[in-house]
Amino acid sequence: MTPKKVKILFLKNIDRPFIENDLKILTKYFEVKVVHSSFKKESIRSNIQCIYNIFKGVIWADVTYSWFADYHAFFANVFLKIFRKKSIIVIGGFEVAKVPEIEYGSMLYPRSARRVKYLLNNTNKLLAVSEFNKKEILKYTDSKNICLVYNGVDYTKLNPKNKIKNLSSIKNDIVITVCGIDKYTVKRKGLETFIKSAKELPEVRFIVIGKWMDNSIDYLRSIATNNVEFTGFVSENELTEWYLKAKVYCQLSLYESFGMALAESMCFECVPVVSNNAALPEVVGNVGFLVPYGDEEATAEAIKKALKSNKGKEARERIKNTFSLDRRENELLKVIKEVIDDEL
């Protein structure tokens, strides 16, 4: 079975750049059909249509490739068992998380936990996006079919060398963090800590970049000092401009299975300041600063050091060497080849 003859059903339930990256990779080498399934409690007709689309796709495909162990992957797995076909699921993180203090994770809820555990134990290949993510998966399965394939960042596209040769020359005393703002991300992403640490550095601009999804923005504004700004939603080009100008990027989360915005910022030579939780230390390595979750004084002190440091170029090199999109492409191809060869 040659690569171009291999048919892959690509299943997703949301649109995200990192998902599209995988789709582009697979389309280069295989025949790919995409099914976007969004299951909703109040829409029975729509859900039936989603199941039917998955059913047709499974009949057509040799292998399914799903992002997240959710309903779309579950129904695909049911049909895969019937037709004796192979499956790959990328575990994004939420599925295997159980963090009651921030109401985060599928494992908090018995029904979704059962579904996820079933998929973890009945899928041909589970792809973990970090070593931390892999350890979380192993809490719920002893499967030998788990493979670590780091998320990939296209550092050449984000900041081509022929565009800006000396990034440090355009950097300012700006500290940024990127995430949508709602009642869940306020705690999970450490936004309170980010904002409260700003009062210790009144001469530095702190920018919260991301869409306002509920009235949590009102609370954050109420605790913010004058040097904190909230952009709301920004375009990809506007986000790039912030990455270019900022010296420091903060990811102060309680739980992250990887941290794509963190990795992207490092491509632009932003020095990372992150909480010492979950996968964040794994992504940053020795090119950034670690702080305890929720400690605004330690965060402010780390930001001071980061603003004066020269770790920006090291941060970019770490992404290039460890988390490049080329590396993910090569490793995905190896995984798919293993699954296909097992089928032959």
UniProtKB/TrEMBL annotation:
Keywords assigned: Transferase
Lipoprotein as UniProt keyword: no
MF GO annotations: glycosyltransferase activity
InterPro entries linked: Glyco_trans_1
Limits of the Glycosyl transferase family domain: 186-321
Pfam family, one: Glycos_transf_1
Species of origin: Methanosarcina lacustris Z-7289
Superkingdom assignment: Archaea
Keyword Calcium: no
Name of protein: Glycosyl transferase family 1 domain-containing protein
